[in-house]
Amino acid sequence: QNEQFIPILSYRTGPYAVNGAPYANGVVDYYNLINERDGGINGVKILTEECETGYATDKGVECYERLKSKGPTGAAFINPLSTGITFALTEKTATDKIPIITMGYGRADSKNGAVFAYNFPLLGTYWSAADLAIQQVAKELGGFDKLKGRKISLLYHDSPYGKEPIPMLQVLAQKYGFEFTPIPVTHPGVEQKSQWLAIRQNRPDYVLVWGWGVMNSTAIKEAAAVAYPRDKMIGVWWSGAEPDVTPAGDQATGYKALMLQHGAGKFPVHADIEKHIYAKGKGSTEPVKIGEVLYNRGMVNAMLGVEAIRKAQEKFGKKPLTGEQVRWGLENLVLTDTRIKELGFEGMLKPVSISCSDHEGARYGRVQQWDGKAWKVISDWSTADESLIEPLVTDVSAKYAAEKKIKPRDCAKET
Amino acid sequence: MRAPNANEILLQVEGVALAFGGVRALRDVSFNVKKGEIRAIIGPNGAGKTSMLNVVNGFYHPNHGAITFKGSTRSKMQPFEAARGGIARTFQNVALFKGMSALDNIMAGRTLKVRRGLLWQALRYGPALAEEVEHRRKVEEIIDFLEIETIRKVPVGRLPYGLQKRVELGRALAMEPDLLLLDEPMAGMNVEEKEDMSRFIVDVNNHYGTTIALIEHDMAVVMDLSDRVAVLDHGVKIADGTPDEVKKSQAVIDAYLGVAH
Amino acid sequence: MIALGQFLEVLIGGLMSGVLYSLVALGFVLIFKASGVFNYAQGAMVLLAGLALVRALDLLVANGLPLWVAVILAIGFAAVIMAATAWLIERFVIGPLVNQDGLTLFMSTIGVTFVIESAAEMIFGSDVYPLRLFPTDAWFLFEGLFPGGILVNKLDVWGALIAGVLVAGLAVFFQRTKTGRALRAVADDHLAAHSVGIPISWIWFVVWLVAGLVALVAATVWGTKLGVQFSITFLALKALPVLIIGGLTSIPGAIVGGLIVGAGEKLAEVYLGPSIGGGIEYWFAYVLALAVLLLRPQGLFGERIIERV
Amino acid sequence: MSIAKVVVAATTEATALILSVNNIEVVYDHVILVLKGVSLEVPRGGIVALLGANGAGKTTTLKAVSNLLHAERGEVTKGSILFNGVEVKSLSPNDVVRRGCIQVMEGRRAFPHLTVEENILTGAFTRTDGKLAIAQDLERVYAYFPRLKERRSSTAGYTSGGEQQMCVIGRALMSRPKMILLDEPSMGLAPQIVEEIFEIVKDLNAKEGVSFLLAEQNTNMALRYASHGYILENGRVVMDGEAHALAANEDVKEFYLGVAGEKRKSYRDVKHYKRRKRWLA
Amino acid sequence: MLYREAGQFKATYAEDMAIFPIRQDRIALAVLLGIAFIGVPLLASFRIWPFSTDYLLWAILLPFLILALAAIGTNILVGYCGQISLGSGAFMAIGAYSAYKLATGIHIPLAWLGFAIAIPPLPVLASILLGGFMAAGAGILFGIPSLRIKGLYLAVATLAAQFFFDWAFLRLPWFTNYAPSGSVNAPELDFFGMVVRTPVERYLLCLTFATVMAVLAKNLVRGNLGRQWMAIRDMDIAAELIGIRPLYAKLTAFAVSSFVIGVAGALWAFVYLGSWEPLAFSIDRSLELLFMVIIGGLGSIMGSFIGAAFILIVPIMLNVIPTKLGLPLSTQAITHLQFIIFGSLICYLLIKEPHGFARLISIGKEKLRLWPFPY
Ligand SMILES: Nc1ncnc2c1ncn2[C@@H]1O[C@H](COP(=O)(O)OP(=O)(O)OP(=O)(O)O)[C@@H](O)[C@H]1O
Ligand SMILES: Nc1ncnc2c1ncn2[C@@H]1O[C@H](COP(=O)(O)OP(=O)(O)OP(=O)(O)O)[C@@H](O)[C@H]1O
Ligand SMILES: CC(C)C[C@H](N)C(=O)O
Ligand SMILES: [Mg+2]
Ligand SMILES: [Mg+2]
């Protein structure tokens, strides 16, 4: 039984399926690729099982409980694909010693690996995202000093996900002197008329969109209906995929969104996928959808997990590993440009370096804009300002540690 | 034994009028029920008989008039107040609690007599249990009396119509009322069953001294059982008196009986 | 002046979007009125109709048919799908449940909801499919009077027109025809309706079909608004307060309820929301409904609940 | 229903009998056996009375004939019912009505939210002979029951018990049936109206050849108007025969007509406490 | 032949009034309780199949017990008192959040009055029970409309409670102790110094709650109050005319039901989820509870357990079976199929037996009694 078990929590039905399905497809295809092309990770086959959460927290918990101890060594890590589920699982995963990978989402304070030993909000937390978004606004306005007195609204999914950036934005508002207004949208977000009428009356300079599922496209349509300029809207990286803009048609033209490093498009690894998976008829989606934003994100996410296992195998041997061992792999994962190129992800990803004190590993971002047909990258790489984020992380995670009676690890002593 | 006390009036209805939109169900009706008697109310369909009972036990609130029961006068009261005052009734369209067994239906009639509260009942221990058993004993007496032992545990929805009427009577009796209002208790019964029912009514009246007001379309029953009969037609009282008097009244024959009985 | 303009804008926007809810509520009313079934699946039926329509349309257009031909054919196709659904539901779910109480029927429609939603997505796909049958931009009225004008969305106006026509037609059908009378009889007492020879299965098929067609109409409007996608099913929950304010059995009530809910919740959200945290419109609509029911337990235009002994 | 079947069934015997119930068993809820082999026949143009105590199974028998049992979780598990030579089981309830057999259900099942007039008109649902004929029949019903005319626009749910009963009977008459299954028509009606109803029965029977199956507790009346009678006890037919023969039977007299010896005894004087002997069932 | 009450005579009313008057039933129940209280924990602590992993305990038994408890609460209101409620989820939430607030301490500064309400953190057990009482209070409040509003109108009106509390717990930061994400964590489950941590301990805790409350609920529903509720359900006018006060009967039903649901909510949050957000108690939960009581049997305490088991386990089975069979279907298709099957199954059951499993069982028993004769 030379198999490494990896559970896949996904949602292919319900209101969030439009975004959940392409992501899950990317994940599944990448794991298959490793098995088909390489015969597994150093010969250890990847065994997966999907569990439908419907983006609902309680279902997510149920899935986790069901899958955590499957396979010869239990789950290597868990990737709940929802900030809400992440919150619900944070304590459990620490007890069960299973890493929880939340790439580009999850709780921002869990960047602090000293307190959150098992959480890995890789490649960017929502606090990083908030900072990146404000940086973009400043750039468009012509400098941070121009932010003063401006109005910036946050249209957010009323859930842990949408609320996560608020503390950071408040910090930023204080620092730069803009007026910050959070505007909640109730799940699932089909009804936003009053929010947009309010926006029309309040006329903010920018609207940040923290939406998911149908909420994104509805926001764009309602913006068009009240004639709010789409190029003054900046979505988080979960509000910047194809299903978010296509339903709005022409109305979406000009809409911007952050990128979690990569965008849409095909890269060397896609050729492998097409060759080893789709040519054999084992693909999990229609071939035209390969290379969509969320599909790519799923692949990146799966790749990071696989590389972490590979890293851990260096220390623990080429055999199925426990969650605890994989955690070591994650915490010591370093992906250089060369390695990224080897993996076929060149152009999708900047270098990553995870450590005990930094479970985020990288905080690069770019901005893309929808031109009516495709996403166009319109900005250069930038990095979230750690000097602003770090104090908040320290502060909030310390509170968590106190509440949960967790004794933070001394990262200096970790290897 | 039975001794109608001619002087004591249990229920006095005074000038009651009731209208629903354009329909004047009752127009200035007055009558009384004496303690211990069996009082019948008859009249053609839609005359206002059921409405009268509804007024008496508070389900309808009359537009005019007053009701004096056991000496206290009211024009308006809530149904459960009437029940607490000692008025029980059965219904024209059987109004049993369909999902419950016959036993539970009758036990429900004892609600007003239950003393122990929610917490005691939840524990169902000691005094609460003792009380429950005591009520059960009383109810079993009624069940025996009405000869429905075999159907105690049957959900009443499954019972044939006639037995349902009997259970309904049992439920009313469980309240130990002073005044029992019966709305067509013998509709849909054959002679034998009517005999049984008559016997129950007479016995209740005799043994417990319960006063009974009765609506019935079977003239034989009415004439045999009742002490006095009031006749309504189109919401107006057209006759009142002993069965024999009423039987002979031309107004009653025209409006109701058709042929002299 | 600005304040007044803004108020009017919110009010009009609210009234209009309320009417869009009415489109969904109408389907509920139809079925309830005719069979006493509280059809939770109405939202799912809108999804199904919308998916059938948009997928057929895309396919036909892709095959080079002129748009108007494609639209007609696609609507025909969707109508056939709704007819098949109506038949299946009658045959396999509601028919066998004749004479059961309202709660059981209600729950069975939730089961139906699961089936329709999933089957629709399985057959027609689960992406977001844009549909553009109506204009979605806005007019800005009285720009001279109010700065920025008063925004009125064209789609909303279309929706309101369609709803008005539907309501008039259906109201006549129910009150004036023999079938309408039979429908109401069935809702009152299944068994008695059987006993006088009303063919309940046929009646129910017709009603579910009409409700399906109403769902199709709703789907054209809502699909244009949101894109055809799963979340359309959530409309069912938004239509419920509309439904009970108007009265479960009243067709015009659905419109009036929609107007009240739409205006009420939007005004509340815009003027009350910010001070107590925002996002209040979901419950506000229901609290509004509760308040109306306390005054009139059968809704504004619903049939009286008969209590007699 | 295939035509062939109808033709085959239409034997000479079937033409003489409008309804024949052959040894049926009915079970409710899969476990409650209510009818244990009931057979009865209604000749074309006959009036047949179905008598029996509470719970004997009269209503169940009628519902089996009109095929309404299904909706109450009941089932005919054995035997057959032929209406006009056609097996009823294969028909839907509305087919039964369309073929001319309508039931007046016990318990005043008027449609509460419809007005009295609307209620009556629903009875004409299966008819296709035009508005005029229906309007005429409506007037005929009003002529039978003037009280209904007075209350025609009232919501049926709010009318009195007797008014509802008249409404339900009137409703059934509107379908112009060949056969009417009357379940306790006299229940809750004033004596005058009861007479009236039996006169209507006689009238329809004589003038229009309508057949009747009559479940009735008012045995006296029923046997006066019927040509035939069946007595049901505990789900079995315990006795049947010509109406006048039944009326003369001593047991029937005692149990159903309340006549002991020759004199009717007063309800006040009934003394027997426990059930007396019954027919051997 | 095995299932007969022949030869079992009851000499007293008390005996006849026992929960299970038939001996065979009593034996079955004793065995079941034995397994639940002793067998399962034993197997689990020695990790013997099927308890070799925590899965069965954590993912099935724990939610089963808690939801069964909530279903009992729902059944009291819907099944016994006939007041259809689509707001059970909200009352679970009230239980959960009240318990959370009580367990973490409450501080309400009333500046204009010059003092503050301050309650120190309460022990977990007290918090859970008080959470139930808070839910009961809210239940009474939202039950008041039921005096006027009936049937499906009431059902929709109860959604006002559902959506209001969904909103309140989401938007009013006080309830979540100003947690920025709105997601809160349960306190440590400390029962008089005994800390409940492992799945087995959690299981036993919930089992105890479920058993005790089921017995109390059973006592209530077979006592006078239960008869009042059922009377209101079956025919409220007649109930009033025999002296049952609708106000009292309905509000006690709302209170008791909400209490039970509230306690279940607190357990769900504290013992099962550990960390939660309002969406855990959404309308879907309310509908799920309603399904449980209807499939299980309206007006049956035992039915609540069966219904909970069914609604909980069937989707899991449906999820597991295709993977076991290795069906060559896309995951998307499988998920959709599961919903289709689940929906159809519900319809099928409702058609087969609209009164739920409880009725099915009683018919089964009846048949057993008559066996070998069909009727
Ligand atoms: N839906 C049902 N479910 C279970 N049992 C039923 C049902 N309907 C009737 N029964 C039973 O069938 C038996 C016959 O009932 P039925 O109503 O046919 O009697 P009936 O002769 O019409 O009596 P009545 O004169 O009281 O109307 C009764 O014992 C009754 O308990
Ligand atoms: N709640 C109500 N709303 C409207 N009309 C009513 C109401 N209650 C009674 N009525 C009307 O009042 C009149 C008297 O009705 P009631 O029920 O008292 O008659 P009844 O004497 O009992 O007749 P029956 O012998 O037929 O039962 C009827 O015409 C009835 O339609
Ligand atoms: C893919 C998802 C994790 C994004 C989601 N909206 C969340 O953060 O919860
Ligand atoms: Mg009456
Ligand atoms: Mg009968």
Characterization of the model:
The complex is a heteropentamer of chains A (about 425), B (about 260), C (about 300), D (about 280) and E (about 375). Chain A has helices spanning about 15-40, 55-65, 85-95, 125-140, 160-165, 165-175, 195-200, 215-225, 240-245, 270-280, 295-315, 325-330, 335-345, 385-405, and strands spanning about 5-10, 45-50, 100, 120, 150-155, 180-185, 205-210, 235, 255-260, 335, 350-355, 365-370, 375, 380-385. Chain A is α/β, with parallel strands linked by helices and about 425 residues long. Chain C is an all-alpha fold. In chain C, about 75% of the residues lie in helices and about 5% in strands. Chain C contains 11 helices and 2 strands. A two-stranded antiparallel ribbon of chain C has the order 1-2. In chain C, strand 1 and strand 2 (about 150-155) form a beta hairpin. With about 375 residues, chain E is mostly helical. Chain E is about 70% helix and about 5% strand. Chain E has helices at about 15, 25-45, 55-80, 90-105, 125-145, 150-170, 200-220, 225-235, 235-240, 245-275, 285-295, 300-325, 330-350, 355-370; strands spanning about 105-110, 115-120, 185, 190, 195, 275. In chain E, helix 5 packs antiparallel against helix 10 (about 245-275), helix 7 packs across helix 8 (about 225-235) and helix 12 (about 300-325) packs antiparallel against helix 13. The longest helix of chain E is centred in the C-terminal third of the chain and has 28 residues, at about 245-275. The model of chain E has no long low-confidence stretch (mean pLDDT about 90). At the C-E interface, helix 4, helix 9 and helix 11 of C face helix 6, helix 9, helix 11 and helix 13 of E. Bound molecules: adenosine-5'-triphosphate (ATP) (2 copies), leucine and magnesium ion (MG) (2 copies). One magnesium ion binds near residues 49, 50 and 92 of chain B.
